[in-house]
Inverse folding.
């Protein structure tokens, strides 16, 4: 058999053997190669022994490196040469590769290097070093829990890459569905997409509020319907009418609608008396001057807040680790 004429392609089988095939190499998964030529098999261990003999320039030092006896190393090479029907090494004062041996040695280096790189990558993936946490939070979640959760996550996973965005809750739904973010932490919509997996963390009430500095403060507190058409709604996000028809009804009740995704900016404008806004009841105790606007159908909107992601998408190592952290921070009741 003329090995120099064979375009060797090799896959390491699960039993440790390498099946030789032509005409090209297939990499089925990291470290898994297939090579076949006329039904012959090469064991991965044989490739390891051949490489050691060449790199250590002799059978004795190769045996020491592999922690094997010299006779086992010699017999392994002899058996391989017998099956291939050609010499791989020329014995003498200095061991040298034959032409067939050079071809097989190049192949052995490819397989063993790929194995080494694959194992290193797997270890880094396992440790989180090659993983990215691609996360989006609502502004309320970010203010209430974001810093604490991320500090704890980074402390446990210092090498993991991090990509965090803060976005309006409805935009988060679209973003996860469009694969912009892997995980979202925010309020659930009344009807979540059926292909989403959800993990509830806590409940909140989204309250319509007005600041004491608003020029119509007393009227908004006493009879808001009389002055809504002269009041601005400052909100994080309203869907296009074609997406959620109810948003058009809310718009019509107010003089105008300002969509501002940044929570602190919304609160500053409300504190300056420029309009009313929705705020989580969990944030209200920490914000001075805000009071609820009651007696409207949408004055209080209860919501469940938690993590969600696409069901049928395999989660990254970083995402799994963040979910484990959330489980600790928000035990299931």
């Amino acid at each position: 058999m003329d090995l120099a004429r064979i375009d060797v392609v090799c896959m390491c089988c699960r039993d440790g053997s390498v099946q030789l095939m032509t005409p090209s190499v297939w990499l089925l998964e990291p470290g898994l190669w297939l090579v076949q030529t006329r039904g012959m098999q090469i064991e991965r261990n044989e490739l390891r022994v051949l490489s050691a003999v060449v790199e250590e320039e002799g059978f004795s030092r190769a045996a020491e490196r592999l922690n094997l006896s010299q006779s086992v190393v010699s017999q392994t090479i002899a058996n391989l040469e017998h099956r291939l029907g050609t010499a791989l090494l020329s014995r003498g004062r200095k061991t040298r590769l034959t032409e067939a041996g050079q071809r097989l040695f190049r192949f052995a280096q490819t397989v063993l290097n790929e194995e080494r790189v694959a194992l290193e990558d797997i270890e880094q993936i396992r440790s989180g070093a090659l993983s990215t946490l691609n996360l989006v939070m609502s502004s309320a979640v970010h203010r209430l829990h974001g810093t604490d959760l991320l500090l704890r996550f980074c402390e446990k996973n210092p090498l993991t890459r991090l990509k965090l965005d803060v976005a309006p809750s409805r935009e988060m739904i679209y973003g996860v569905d469009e694969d912009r973010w892997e995980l979202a932490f925010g309020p659930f919509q009344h009807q979540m997409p059926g292909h989403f997996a959800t993990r509830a963390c806590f409940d909140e009430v989204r309250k319509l509020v007005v600041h004491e500095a608003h020029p119509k403060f007393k009227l908004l507190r006493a009879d808001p319907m009389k002055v809504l058409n002269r009041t601005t709604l400052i909100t994080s996000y309203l869907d296009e009418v074609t997406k959620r028809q109810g948003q058009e009804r809310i718009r019509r009740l107010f003089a105008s609608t300002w969509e501002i995704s940044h929570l602190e900016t919304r609160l500053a404008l409300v504190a300056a008396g420029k309009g009313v806004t929705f705020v989580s009841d969990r944030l209200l105790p920490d914000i001075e001057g805000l009071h609820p606007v009651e007696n409207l159908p949408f004055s209080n909107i209860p919501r469940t807040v938690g993590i969600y992601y696409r069901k049928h998408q395999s989660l990254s190592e970083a995402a799994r680790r963040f979910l484990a952290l959330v489980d600790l921070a928000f035990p299931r009741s």
User: Anything to note?
Assistant: Residues 1-12, 20-37, 239-246 have pLDDT under 50 and may be disordered.
